[in-house]
Amino acid sequence: MADKGSEAEACPLKAEEVTVAAAAPAGGPGGVEPVPLGKAPRLSRWRTAAFFGSLFLGLSVVFVFSFIIPCPVRPVSQRTWSRAYGGAATYKFLAVGDADQDSVKDIIFAFQSTSGGDDRRSSSSNNNSRSSTNRSCSDEGFASPCAFLVALSGRNGSTLWQRPVAEDLHLMDCSAELPHSPSCIVVGAPDSITAIDLNTGQTQWKQAVDFGANATVLNPLLVVPDLDGDGVLDFLIFTAVEEKVKYYFFSGKDGDLIGSSGSFIVSGWIGHLLLATKTGAHYVLFCTANALYGYSVKELHHIAIRMPGHRRLDLVEDLHWEMAIDRFSHEVSLISSGEILYLAKIPAKSGDDILLARSEILELLDGQRLGSTWASNIPHIQSEPVIGSYSTDAVDVLVESRVAPNKKKVVILHGSSGVTAWELELLSRAESPRPATLPTADHRSAFLFWGAYEGETARMGGAGALQQNLYLFHPAVPGVLLEMTNSTEPIVAFQTVLLERNRHACYLLLTGPRAGGAPGEVMLSKQKLKEDMASSRVIRLSQLAYDTDQSIRDRFLRMRYRSLQ
Known about the structure:
By secondary structure, the chain is of the alpha+beta class. It contains 8 helices and 32 strands. Strands 21, 22, 23, 24, 25, 26, 27, 28 and 32 form a 9-stranded antiparallel β-sheet that branches.
């Protein structure tokens, strides 16, 4: 018995089989036949074979998808490129959009020329254009010179399409989404409104309009709710002749005029914008040098239509706005005083707020109730404020003010309170480009602005006094500036952009003579931000102990960027 116990302890499975076999009846009608011991290993072999077969099949699938089926090739973008157009003049207009649908945003701009700009820089790339790039003004029935609209590849600057669109341009908007594709709406002279397909450069529709003699088309064009019930958003355009302002609603589907025009009398139009309240009401705010006015789209539409059967009953008005706007004059009461220079909207938790820049004061209005949130003393504001994030996930404001004839102050304000977060004085030219921002992965922003750091005056010297430098600042390193690049050419437009989602941070620079003046060389260039960072000069604004210049550059080079949409 001791031997059997030892055997059971050494081989428990075997002992269990023997016990089961011994306990089972030997056979007979009511007995259970014992399982032969030889079948268990055979079952185990089948399970092993099934396991290794499944493993082999899974590895085969992985191998096929990893090595045999090719992965999609990500387009390779040049780090920097530029295009030059001789015998041309340009407009202060830059837009981006994916014209060739390669997931890299492309650049759309306009210039005035007699022969398409005489592009000499990258003529070999024109072979890839999807529409003709040598159409002349006369081909479209325009007098020469005329305005050309062109789309350039964000990857390498090659021409995707180029075409004459008008004899002269009043305004353009390339953010419209028409039924079949994104579009550019072009308002040109002689008076016409045209929808250009962003992907092909072809005309989707074109309508002749009559704005009246000597009328000035006011920028920007506004995209409003569908007013004619065709399922497509419509457009609102303002024009001015002296103190009389007229407005027109146009169908987004075919460009037809909706109803007739409306008008009112104002003195000294400065700007206008469209806001939507949380109740679904849409209002147009416009400002003169002395006052701010508000009109609901419902009221403007009702005046323009003048036909009860065409009145849109789903247009609404907001009770808070109606209480804040004077019923007869349409003026909005403000706590600040002084000449109004700029009007802008900034994102807020419950919609958009309104930023009002006066000559001496920057004031933020609540976008839902039109009441003042804060007002900050900023003397001699000289450029339109821009939005960024100095603090994590905040909406802050960068503004430039003139402190001397050739000197400005760059100020970043906390958007929640109007309190100054950071400031810096720079030497500045009379016409300095508007600053710009780029959102970074840490939920703050990189701030970019032009000027000349005072400590570098001696280095510039002579003709260098006309030079303007591009600086980059990030709140993570508050005592440091990166001097990125410089330019002595007149800068018409400057814009920062992410050409690919969450990557490819770069800036666009448009230089050359303005349309309406003597022609010259127009140049559009794209520069990847990291390329400039690698060769930048580090400027220390404080005596705090920082790392070496290269360590600081490396810190900026490791930054990642994010798309807000």
